Structures are given as C-alpha cells and as structure tokens.
Amino acid sequence: MREKMTDLSFFPSEMFDKKFRYDGGDLGAQCGQEGTSFKVWSPFAEEVTLRLYRDGSSESFLERQLERKDRGVWELEFPENLHGVYYDYLVRNEGKDVRTADPYAVACGCNGVRSMVADLRLTDPPGFEADRRPDQKEENIIYELHIKDFSYDAESGVPREYRGKYKAFAVGEGQELPACMRHLVGLGVTHVQLMPFFDYASVDESGEDSQFNWGYDPLNYNVPEGSYATDATDGAVRIRECKEMIQALHRQGIGVVMDVVYNHTYSEDSWLERMVPGYYYRHNEDGSLSNGSACGNDIAVGRSMADNYIVDSVLFWAREYHVDGFRFDLMGLLTVELMNRIRRELDKEFGAGRILLYGEPWRAEESPMEAGSIPALKQNAELFEDGVGFFSDDTRDAIKGHVFQSKVPGFVNGGAGLETQILHAVTGWRDGGAGFMPKSCRQIVNYVSVHDNFTLWDKLILTMHGELRQRCWEVDFTSRFEDVLAANRLAAFIYFTCQGNLLMQAGEEFGRTKLGEDNSYRSAPEINMLRWSQVEDFGDLVEYYKGLIRLRKRLPGLCDKSPSAFVRITDQKICGEGIVSFRVDNRSAQGAEWEELQIVYNASGKAFTAELPDGGRNWEVLADGGEADCRRPAEGSKGAVEVGACSGMMAGRRTPNKK
Ligand code: CA
Q1: How far is the CA of 510 from the centre of ligand 1 (A)?
Q2: Three-state secondary structure along 519-571?
Q3: Which superfamily is assigned to 8-123 in CATH?
C-alpha cells in the first residue's frame, strides 16, 4: 500500500473506490443522549489516537486509540454525551504521528485549532426548531453582504459589543430594529448572500476587532467563523449566534445564501491533508500542487471522497443552519458532475429548487482535473442541471465595462457598440450571443457589482471622471456627480429588467465607495464597512433601487424562469447609438397588472422619444430615469414618451379589468 500512496493515479481509480470509498455520511464526532462516537476516514494510517481536552488550551485528560474498521474508517464510541469536550487526533503515517483537528468537526475552539464535540441540539437558540425558510418569492433578489461590513459603522445603530458580529442581525427583535437592519428589511431584497462565515484562518480570533478579511481561506468547513461571535473560545457560542443571525433574517422574510469555498483551503497543510496525505489536493504531473485558484492549492474535486466531503458539508449547513442557498466560489474548479449531484441531493431533501445553488463559472488558472471530469465552467452550462446557476459576467461587463481594466467603459458609461450585447443580456443570453447556452434564465445571476473589483460607484467615477478625486468620506458626492448618479440608475434599471436572478452588492444602492480600492480583501474595516449615513445622503438613489425591487416582483414576464421565458422578449431594436428598446409579454396565469411592457435603455447623451402603440391608450409609465415604480398615464402625450439622456424607461399596457 505504501507505494500506492505516492501514485496519484490510484486515488481517483475504481480500485481505490471499491476498497475505500465510504458513503456513511456520519464522519466526525456524533453526540447526543445515546453517547458520542468519533469516526474518521484515513485509509493509510497505521494508527489513529484521539485526545480529549477540557478546553481549548489545557493538556489532554484522555488519549485513546481508534479501532480500524472497513473502508479506511476508524471509530471509537463513548457511552457519555461529551458535549463541550475538545479533541484532536494523532494520525500515524509511515511511523510518524501528525497532530490534526477533525476535518469533519462541527465545533471548535479559538482559531479552530482544536475541534469540539457538540450536541447540536444544545446549540439551538430559543425557537430555532420552529425556524422555517421564507417562502419562495416572485423573484430572487440577492444582497451580497459581509457580516463585519454590515454593522461595523457606529451609524449602524447596533450596540458597540455586537458591531461586526452575528448578533448585529438579531438586535432589537420585537422592538425597534437598528438602522442597518431597518434598511435591509425595507429594501425588499429576498435573500442576503453572506460572504464566508465558515471558520476561516486569516483573522486571529483572539486578536483585535479592527482586523478584517473577506474570509476566502477555509480552515474548518463545517464550523462558523469565530471572529463574528461574542466569544470565540467557547465552541458553542459561535454556533448559537450564527443560528440566531439566520433565524433573525428568516423572521424578516429574508433567506440566507452561504458563500462557500470548496475549491481551495487556507493552506495545503490542512486537516484534510494531515488526515489523508496527498488525497484531497490536485497535483501537476511534476508533483507540484496545482494552482487554479491562485491561492496555492486546489481541492481534488472529482475524487470520490473529496466529492463526498463537499456534499456532506453542503447538506450539513442546509439541515443544521437552515441555510437557503449556496454560492460557490470559483465553481469552475469543481466539476459539472459534483454540482449536479449537489443539486439533486438538495432537491431530494428540501424540494425541487427550494435551495438556491449558483457559483462563479470560472477559475483563476487552468487546473488538472481527473480524467473524464468536466469543469463547471460557463461554456459547459448546457450540461448543468437547470437549477445550477452562475454569475453572468457578460451582463456585468456589457453594462458597466471591464472589471480589471478600470478605464474601459460599458454601455451606461460611454462604451460604444454594446447595443447587441445588452439586448442579449435581457434574455439571460438564452438567444445565444456569448458562446454559451443556458438551459433557462434560472441559471443566470444578473449583477453589476460584488465584493471583487471596484464598487459600481468607483467604476463609474473612474470611467466618467478619469480618477477618484475624493479622498475622504465627507465629500458631498451627489452634487458633483449627477452624471454618475444617472449612469448608476441606468445600470440598475438595465439589470433589473433582464431575465434571470438578480444580485447586488450591499451599498450599491447608496453609492458605496472603497476610495478606488479594487481588492479590499484585507483592507481596514473602515474601507470595507457600509457607511449608513449614506442611506440618507443618497436617499434618491436608495428610493430608485427600492422602486425597482418592488416593480420587478410585479412583472411575471421578467421573473419567468422557464426555458421558454426568452420568447416573451420581442421587438428588440437598436434605435440609435446607445439606445435600444424591446417589448415584454408580461401575461401570467395569475393575472398581471400589465399585459405588455415596453422598455427603452437610453445610454446616449440625448433624449429619445419612444412611441407607444394606440397613442398610449391604456399605457402607463412605470419607471423612468428619475423614478422607479411610478404610475403615470401615457395618453396625454399621445403615446410619445421622452426618455431622457442616460436613462431607462418602462411603460406597461394595463391588463383589461385590472386596476
Ligand atoms: Ca477563524
């Protein structure tokens, strides 16, 4: 067996799977009234020793060897409920003991160094067993949020001790909500997509609160991050507070999408590597680690036990934390087979399509996949299950310009020749045009900004004014940048009128800036945090986004996720440079307020006159460059509606007998 360990072609083989693949789904420490069982998978270990501790730092009070079972599994059982006991393992390979925490741990101590046994029922906050996922809404409108960004600002209204923490979401329940939560609830989004909140390594959980990281550096996949908890040393606290956060969001009718990072780990010296050396990482032919993630190591998705690990982890978060969706970081490093398997497993347990599943359909670099594996990249969209979605970088770039080349504009900020692209984006690229073919717009996530790259505001300033001149937060942006505000509204108007799911970066609706920082993954919290006073400063823009969100939910022609939804989009026209228009068949079995929509995007510097049919009889303007979700009769102007420079316009024909 020894020589087999170094032969990497053995790991993905049928021979390996026949002997060692374990599908029990019960690895880790299971703990309840009936006792505690420890199970690890380590097929080549010569010996595995469990060590138990009273806390995260003291000497072990008990050491005992696990018993070797079939299929590379080792096991040890105790009749007691060991909730709150900390543990790690010594794994002996080639005569050498290596200490490791449990890669399957569901709880851990400070900085994730030791695992903790958890009877998870004892970690539920009051009422958690009655917590339910919010009902599915007309549309998925997702708000990308970092837990620390949300409430670090004193203006968030959150008490100091809870700022930047899970607890911030649960403050003031039943009473008056703090400003940040009030804004979030009032905005009308259906989901938050929370940036990594599994346990990551780059923030010292015993250190200062002023540390910051996005968290794309997994340490313990099945444990919540400790720096967002009020006490990182007691392994139960982070679990309870994370659940409280999700429960509080659910009470407000908001679902929680978890940002998951199964493509790489913080370091290749991970618990997975220590438990089964060489198995969980991809290697190049020369034996070096592959680096498709640009983070130094790629998880060997495509090997049975790596895939099982990820499936088990996703199901765990959905079951235990009632998570409503998953956003896969660098999904292109994973396989179509695995993503489809996760889709099927989630559907089986929670109902078809009930849990959102989407990811980044790209990778940083090439990565040597196992033979026969198909990477979960955009160009393989046809092979995805319909319920596996992905971010539409094509839509993003067409609207606002290239994400890396700061000065390259898109449709709304001066880019030329993008009319056709923009019209393709409206159908979620279902009419072709981008070298890939989604099965339906259900697969498409439309957006113009996320945590990566410039904020929308900064990108617009850079392309329209050449440089970011403001160097402090107090500048009155709004009076100096009317043109930027108009472009921002048009950008939002466009993606809110594209078919597919919608996603926005938190603060996009109030001119969020990072002062030109395009990769703030470890910048100060002051650069990253949401500045809640801007909600007022940018009040008109906030109202515009709110209006778009309200309006979108009432437009079945745009919310339709069926494979044939794209045929609702008709009469696509390029009306001039930077001006396009189209119609939407907005009828629905439930009865829509407007049976037909006419939409114009005018990114040009001149006003454009749109002609509505029948002299505008029965038509009303539903949105323009200044207001979204308005309702102005179009008859007075005989159906000629002026669409101002750099603005969008939507008109709807009332459905007969509908008010
Ligand atoms: Ca951590």
Answers
A1: 30
A2: CCCCCCHHHHCCCCCHHHHCHHHHHHHHHHHHHHCCCHHHHCCCCCHHHHEEE
A3: Immunoglobulins (2.60.40.10)
Cα 144 to middle of ligand 1, angstroms: 21
Are 505 and 450 spatial neighbours (Cβ–Cβ below 8 Å)? yes
* Average pLDDT rounded to a whole number, residues 287-301: 94
Q: How far is CA 208 from CA 35, 167, 211, 527, in A?
A: 38, 18, 6, 17
Catalytic residue among 259, 298, 329, 595: 329
Distance of CA 510 to the CA centre of its chain: 20
Between the CA of 203 and the centroid of ligand 1 the distance, in Å, is 6
Dist CA 491 CA 155 (whole Å): 28
Q: How far is CA 548 from CA 526, 605, 618, 649, in A?
A: 29, 23, 22, 12
The 3-state DSSP class for residue 651 equals strand
d(CA 157, CA 178): 5
Could you say which architecture CATH assigns to the domain 568-654? Sandwich (2.60)
Task: Tell the residue number behind the tokens 């959980």, with chain if given.
Answer: 205
Checking if the pLDDT of 2 tops 50, the result is no
474 has a pLDDT exceeding 90: no
Q: How far is the CA of 205 from the centre of ligand 1 (A)?
A: 6
Pull the structure tokens for residue 91. 């794994």
Q: For strand 628-633 and strand 115-116, is the pairing parallel, antiparallel, or unpaired?
A: unpaired
Give dist(CA 164, CA 646) in Å, integer. 37
User: How much distance in Å is there from the Cα of 277 to the middle of ligand 1?
Assistant: 23
> Is 568-654 the same fold as 8-123?
yes
Give the count of alpha carbons within 13 A of 201, CB side only. Answer: 15
- Which residues neighbour ligand 1 (ion) by CB within 5 Å? 199, 225-226
387-427 pLDDT tens trace: 999 999 999 999 999 988 888 999 999 999 999 999 999 99
CA of 219 to the centre of ligand 1 (A): 7
**CA–CA gap between residue 384 and residue 388 (Å, rounded):** 6
* H/E element, 488: helix 482-495
Q: What is the CA radius of gyration of the chain?
A: 26
Token pair, residue 158, equals 């959150």
- Supply the pTM of this predicted model: 0.97
What tens digit of pLDDT does each residue of 414-423 get?
999 999 999 9
Phi, psi of 502 (to 5 degrees): -120, 140
CA of 216 from ligand 1 middle (Å) equals: 11
List the chain domain ranges: 8-123, 568-654
139 given a catalytic annotation: no
Indicate the DSSP class of residue 655: P
pLDDT confidence of residue 404: 86
Catalytic residue among 360, 370, 419, 508: 360
pLDDT at site 3: 43
Across 217-373, the runs of DSSP E, i.e. the strands, are 218-224, 255-260, 325-328, 356-359
- Centre of ligand 1 to C-alpha 545, Å, is 35
Q: Is 329 a catalytic residue?
A: yes
CA 228 / ligand 1 centre spacing (Å): 9
**Residue 1 predicted with pLDDT over 50:** no
**Strand ranges (E), 225-282:** 255-260
